[in-house]
Amino acid sequence: MDVCWGIHAGKTGDADSLFLDKKSPCIAIGWDAMGNLSNIENDREAFKKKLIEAYPDTKKGAINTVAGMPFRFKYEMQIGDYVVYPSVADRMVYIGKVTGDYEYKPEKSKSYCNMRSVEWIKSVPRTSVSQGALYEIGSALSLFQVKNYVDDILMFLDVNISANNGEAAIESDDNTIDDIFANVEETTSDFIFKKLFTELKGFAFEPFVAHILNIIGYNTRVTKKSGDGGIDIVAFKDELGIEPPIIKVQVKCVEGAIGAPAVQALYGNVEVGEYGLFITLGDFTKQAMDFAKIKTNLRLMDGQEFVNIILKNYEKLDSKYKAIIPLKNVYIPTQIENAY
């Protein structure tokens, strides 16, 4: 039976470049202090014992879950299994297959020395993946088996698995508060991105951006839909819009990366004493960011930063936009010290 694993490259995507290396793509996990996992017998209790030796500060209630991840990576994962990796670096979801046995390679990565080679078959934007699947692959665990939304993931490869199979994924109530919050925050961001792409695509995105700029303290004027020279919004601090600095804003409701030519075109319309601001729901190429770095009056804002501003100021949104992006307050537990 086919199995699909989910994996993360660290909380902030530390191992993203390792996973997506063009010459030797792989998946990897940490626990470097446990050494070569091949030296630990195929037994969960042996992994628990080694974990406690290597990481004596591990909370008692987390030992089963934490030790289970390197155990499963070494002994349960098999060549031919599917793997899904949601990248926090480019907001893409990578789907592939495990192509190699377990290898211990501290010379390649000290922090992520436990590796398996993979073939990445397809990558899709997070906005193309169902909300349920995004929630499942956003697990706080570094390694887990995808169970409930396997079909939603593998449909991008024209693969269908209609029934759950294999051992149930190991879950734990001991996820740290930071992990829980990060998972909720990421899932909420995914929801907002989807709503922006589906409900405010095209010209409707421009007045929404202007509204956000109004909320954070700017007066704005949305330009005409044509003949605007690439300038979608003009922002200013005074009510009349005659006092410097004037900010010329271009917005893009796209998922891909904005290149240097588009950024340079915007900057070409920025006069002396003015500022340029480029806002996109996607991100920017390295060349675009390098160009902006040398321009003191040019600012780039990618999709994640823009969504963070929405979250920070959500209560101030106009009711019509709250209806498009419906959110509500939730409560999560606070950290309890010395729980074990």
Automatic annotation (TrEMBL):
The record's listing under InterPro entries reads: Restrct_endonuc-II-like (IPR011335), Restrct_endonuc_IV_Mrr (IPR007560), tRNA_endonuc-like_dom_sf (IPR011856), Type_IV_Methyl-Rstrct_Enzyme (IPR052906), UCP031853 (IPR016984)
Task: Recall the GO molecular function terms of this protein's record.
Answer: DNA binding; restriction endodeoxyribonuclease activity
The Restriction endonuclease type IV Mrr domain covers 199-309
Alphabetical GO biological process terms: DNA restriction-modification system
- A Pfam family the protein falls into: Mrr_cat
What SUPFAM superfamilies would the database entry show?
Restriction endonuclease-like
Q: Name it.
A: Restriction system protein
Task: Identify the species of origin.
Answer: Parasporobacterium paucivorans DSM 15970
